[in-house]
Write a structure and sequence with these properties.
Layout lengths: L6 H6 L3 H9 L4 H5 L31 E2 L2 H10 L2 E8 L2 E12 L2 E5 L2 H6 L6 E15 L7 E15 L3 H15 L3 H4 L5 H6 L2 E5 L2 E7 L17 E4 L21 H4 L4
Antiparallel strand pairs: 1-8, 2-3, 2-5, 3-4, 4-7, 5-6, 5-9, 6-7, 6-8
Bound molecules: flavin-adenine dinucleotide (FAD).
Flavin-adenine dinucleotide binds next to β5, β6 and β8.
């Protein structure tokens, strides 16, 4: 899965003790940016759009569909949680989980899906959805109430990241993507923990975005109604960090926690 750029990791993957400082030296965002797998890391190799297929073309309100990587990646990078849909026999499952886009792929923790993957070396078909809710749209009629949102649907085959060194590299990138700087401070996974962690990788080759912005759209006669209409914006805002009671008060709150921004 990680054809290039993992040599250093492979050489380093000796023991946790030997490995931790070496990984630490890679540091925050930079290290995440040079992380593994990373389909089409050389941007020239990847088209700027993900052309819609029969499966990903937005049908309803099709003008809200977007297929350029910039729009899709922006939504993915703002999200924390994805919902992973997959079928076991004829039973669909949709599981929420943390994820991070790294290069041209999504990485997410796999639980149930990873069990299936043990018997499917070429991957399992999944549908991964990420939704950002930007506002409640209050129209004059109940029927025309809506939400402002940005969402992405990605289809494809997810594969299990199996090699411990690849897993570690993915976890490093994953952590740094969500909280840049945290990897260096926290204890890194040991071999047992790595074994207990399943990570799945989905290349972003078939995906769509759908974006609703703006005011309510009422039926023409309803604009005369004496009803308040507009948008209630919704924002996900980090609060002040709450220190764990068991955390030594002498340890200062790190900047990446105190000033956390996404
Ligand atoms: C917070 C939120 C609230 C919504 N509320 C409503 C609602 O009340 N009523 C309603 O009809 N719709 C709602 N939608 C839109 C809904 O997600 C679907 O887009 C819609 O129901 C069906 O569209 P379609 O016919 O194109 O879908 P389908 O034919 O089911 O989908 C075809 C393809 O279009 C793409 N697609 C469809 N929807 C999305 C999406 N949201 N994001 C990215 N790609 C997409 C996918 O690739 C999919 O495979 C909401 C979306 C969000 C995020």
């Amino acid at each position: 899965m990680f054809p290039q750029g993992v040599v250093a990791y492979r050489q380093l993957f000796l023991t946790h003790a030997a490995l931790a400082p070496a990984i630490n030296q890679m540091g925050g965002r930079e290290a995440a940016g040079s992380a593994p797998c990373f389909y089409g890391e050389k941007r020239g190799a990847v088209p700027e759009t993900v052309p819609p297929t029969e499966r990903t073309r937005v049908v309803r309100e099709s003008h809200r569909g977007a297929y350029d990587r910039e729009s899709i990646y922006k939504i993915l990078d703002e999200g924390y949680v994805c919902h992973v849909g997959f079928a076991v026999d004829v039973q669909p499952y949709v599981i929420p989980t943390l994820f991070a886009r790294i290069g041209d792929a999504i990485y997410f923790h796999g639980s149930a899906a990873s069990r299936m993957l043990r018997n499917a070396s070429d991957g399992i078909p999944v549908c991964v959805t990420v939704t950002l809710t930007d506002g409640l749209v209050l129209a004059r009629s109940v029927f025309n109430h809506s939400m402002n949102y940005r969402s992405v649907v990605a289809l494809g085959k997810a594969t299990l990241v199996e090699q411990p060194e690849d897993k570690l590299e993915a976890l490093h990138a994953f952590t740094e993507k969500i909280i840049p700087g945290r990897w260096n401070d926290a204890r890194q996974p040991n071999e047992k923990e790595l074994k207990a962690t399943s990570i799945l990788c989905l290349p972003l080759t078939e995906a769509s975005a759908k974006i609703r912005v703006g005011p309510p759209e009422d039926d023409a006669p309803d604009y005369a109604l004496p009803v308040w209409a507009g948008v209630i914006p919704l924002h996900l805002t980090p609060g002040t960090p709450i220190r764990d009671k068991k955390c030594d008060p002498a340890i200062p709150t790190p900047g990446y926690a105190a000033d956390y921004r996404r």
